[in-house]
Design a protein that fits this description.
Elements: H1 4-18, E1 23-26, H2 33-40, E2 47-51, H3 55-64, E3 73-76, H4 83-86, E4 95-101, H5 116-127, E5 130-140, H6 145-158, E6 166-171, E7 182-188
Parallel strand pairs: 1-2, 1-4, 2-3, 4-5
Antiparallel strand pairs: 5-7, 6-7
Bound molecules: S-adenosylmethionine.
């Protein structure tokens, strides 16, 4: 069975095939693996916008993404909760997909981690710009203290989102040890 991260990439790949010239957001750039996946997808001919609050992440990702055309992506050293300020509605009216890989940057300071409040702010902003059938993928790690809180708060809030506007599913692994990551998918109807 594929894990949450592999499943998110499978589904993201299918989304890129559906919307090859679309606008995509990597909300947690980190070392750039999700951005690399998007930019290297054979069907991708769109634009990628990626966010991270840590200089270290930006530097690692810049190095990883250096061979892709510079006009196909933009990296922002800023929190995803500032999405609306950084990419105004007139600059970027629609998005087709977004991916959040929550938690902390592996090998860096574990105290610098995503948090429910700002993750939800970003999700609310991005969801407003999703095209019909556009999707947001969220890989959630609950094996650390902040991650466990973030998971509970996200699930509680997302349960309240209108089912007339969004379908929201969860891929969880019921009998695995050590809190394996889970995948939440939000699809705009
Ligand atoms: C698990 S890592 C992401 C891994 C990344 N997707 C990759 O492929 O390498 C989580 C990242 O989220 C970043 N982060 C934490 N809070 C953030 C925020 N408010 N906005 C954007 N990035 C944030 C952290 O700095 C960290 O690099």
């Amino acid at each position: 069975m594929k894990n949450a991260l592999q499943s998110s990439h499978d589904a993201l790949g299918k989304l890129i095939e559906r919307f090859p010239t679309g606008n995509y957001i990597d909300a947690t750039l980190g070392k750039g693996r999700d951005s690399y996946f998007i930019l290297s997808h054979p069907s991708f001919a769109g634009k990628l916008f990626a966010f991270d609050i840590q200089d270290q992440a930006l530097q690692l990702a810049q190095q990883k993404l250096k061979d892709f055309p510079s006009d196909s992506f933009q990296l922002f050293n800023n929190g995803h909760e500032h999405f609306n300020q950084i990419l105004s509605l007139s600059t970027l009216p629609k998005i087709h997909g977004a991916i959040f890989n929550l938690g902390y940057l592996p090998g860096a300071n574990h105290q610098i981690t995503t948090k429910a409040l700002t993750t939800l702010q970003a999700l609310n902003q991005m969801a407003q710009r999703l095209v019909s059938k556009g999707k947001i993928f969220i890989v959630v790690y609950s094996g650390h203290a902040e991650g466990a809180i973030e998971k509970e708060e996200l699930l509680e809030e997302l349960r309240k989102w209108s089912q007339d506007q969004f379908s929201i599913s969860i891929l969880d692994f019921l009998n695995q040890k050590n809190h394996p990551p889970l995948l939440i998918t939000i699809e705009k109807k």
